[in-house]
Amino acid sequence: NTHFTELIITKTLNLFNIFNIIELFHKISYNVFGDFMSEIDKKIINVIDKIRPFLISDGGDIEFVKFEDGIAYVKLLGQCAGCSLIDTTLKDGIEVALVNEVPEVVEVINVNDDMDL
User: Fewer CB in 10 Å around end: N or C, the chain?
Assistant: First the structure.
């Protein structure tokens, strides 16, 4: 019984450590390049998360790439990537929402696979 109790305690402590590690990763966020995300990045992602359900309902999605010099770089995915209304979605929807809610953002650019960042 002592061995069984020690095993349970060890497994519980390991599980506790895993939860602490997960919590730490939630507090210290990284972008798709593995770079540390700033508070502005987190604000942008928060707005994108509000927009995402509308894009998903039309078969698309959006990924935050980076924020640099007032420009939020995103990647439109799925049906959005090839849609004829991509510019309207980007400028009249996503950009308007981000500029209104994140004052540091002045423009939004859709990244494609051919672009070097």
Answer: N
